[in-house]
Amino acid sequence: MDQDRLDLAVSKGIFSPDGVQNLGRVIVDEETLRKRVGELGTAITKDYSGKRPLLIGVLKGAFVFMSDLAREIQLPLEFDFMAVSSYGSATKTSGVVRIVKDLDLDLTQRDVLIIEDIVDSGLTLSYLLRNLLARNPKSLEVCALLVKEGLQRSELDLKYVGFRIPPEFVVGYGLDIDENYRNLPYICSYKD
Ligand code: 5GP
Question: Where do the structural domains in the chain lie, given as residue ranges?
């Protein structure tokens, strides 16, 4: 990570100086995020013209992205959230997913857009797609901020993708390691 960003984050108290040796290079900076989120919002606005989409945020990682994205969509929107936990280590998903918080709203005949932070193996998303499709939405699409190159085990149909990134573990802009670093305004790599 570059020294200015590091100094700023330490000075803002986002992380302590003793934890920073694990943070690597910046993968997506603030300006690039802002621009791409704007483009995604414009595309969604166009594609869903005349509709009232229901955005489903996958907690907790998607909350920052969803908040910025929603304000770039010029349509009436509704929101709901789902929390899932996947069994596995801190940095690898096992594919066995448990719903920790289910939706409050009914999906029947709704135009549903899942907002995901990151797709790695794709196992979490495959599970979510199967689960939500069974609730009879009118349409079901995915908007993922990040997709790791080459790691998905099955073909996933992702209508909107922010960035394709190398297969490194990343934190920031909602993404955590042990609940830390979600409030970094950019995305950077993290090494144990
Ligand atoms: P998948 O099921 O696609 O392998 O993993 C998806 C979930 O694992 C994401 O929603 C996220 O919670 C977590 N995850 C995968 N890769 C990363 C990463 O690089 N950084 C962080 N912080 N979480 C990740």
Answer: 29-87+96-184
